[in-house]
Amino acid sequence: GQGIAQVCAAAGFSVLLYDLNADLVQRARKGIEKNLHLAVEKGKLDETTKNQTLGRISTVSDLNGIKADLV
C-alpha cells in the first residue's frame, strides 16, 4: 500500500492512506517521506515536488474518514 500511495501521489492524485492501526499508517507515511527525501538527495526529485507529493497524502485510521472515488 505504501508504494502504491507514493506513486499515485507523485502522479498528481490525492491519496488517503488507510489502516485501522494508526501507528501503521504513520509508519507508512514516514516511509514515504524517507523515500522522497532520498530521491531529493540523489538529485532525482526536487524539494518542491517532494513537498507537493507529500501534500497529496492524507492518513486515515477510521472508516468514517474515508470518502474516495477509487479504492
Briefly note the structural class of the backbone: mainly alpha
Main sheet strand line-up:
1-2
- Proportion of residues in helical segments: 40-55%
Number of helices: 3
Number of DSSP E strands: 2
Task: Report the uncertain regions.
Answer: none
Spatial gap, N to C terminus: 11 Å
Radius of gyration in whole Å, from Cα?
A: 12 Å
Outline the biggest β-sheet. 2 strands, parallel
Shape: globular
Sheet-strand content, in percent, reads: 5-15%
Following the backbone from N to C, one meets helices and strands in this order, namely HEHHE
Mean of the pLDDT scores? 91
Task: Describe this protein's structure.
The chain is mostly helical and 71 residues long. The chain is 54% helix and 11% strand. It has a two-stranded parallel ribbon.
What would you say about this model in short?
The protein is mostly helical. It has helices spanning 2-10, 22-41, 47-55; strands at residues 15-18, 57-60. The mean pLDDT is 91.
SSE layout and pairing:
Layout: H1 2-10, E1 15-18, H2 22-41, H3 47-55, E2 57-60
Parallel strand pairs: 1-2
Helix pairs in contact: 1-2
List keywords for this structure.
single chain; two-stranded parallel sheet; mainly alpha; 2 strands; 71 residues
